[in-house]
Every structure is written in C-alpha cells, then in structure tokens.
Here is the input.
Amino acid sequence: MKLLCATGNNVKFGIGQRLLKQYGIELEQIKLEIDEIQSEDIEKIIRDKAQKAYALLRQPVIVSADSWTMP
Here is the structure.
C-alpha cells in the first residue's frame, strides 16, 4: 500500500516512513505550501491541514503537525 504524505519536513517524513514500513505501507512525500492554523488543539490543526491538502491533491493524503501518534 502506498500513501501520500504532505510535508516539506524531511525529518518528519523519514520518521513516518520508518514507522509505517513495518506495516507494509510505503510513503510518498509531497511538498505542499499549506498555511497552518494556530491552535493548542492538535486535532483541529490536523483536520484543517488534511482538508487543505486533500483540496489541492484530490486524493487521500496524510499530514503531520507536531508529532507522529499511532494508537
């Protein structure tokens, strides 16, 4: 499986790439200019960023803000 990852941060991309590889998921980095809202609510930031990335790409995409969390 392959997923798009919208981030210009190579470190965040590398972390996500290593993390998801163990589940058989390949990440492809897409560098987009997305204005990030300011909030202390990380879920609000991520939802907004994901919606903006999807609007630009018109395909499923994952985003990262502050950290990678896998429940």
Remarks:
- Residues 42-57 form the longest helix (16 residues).
- The chain is about 40% helix and 20% strand.
- The chain has a mean pLDDT of 89.
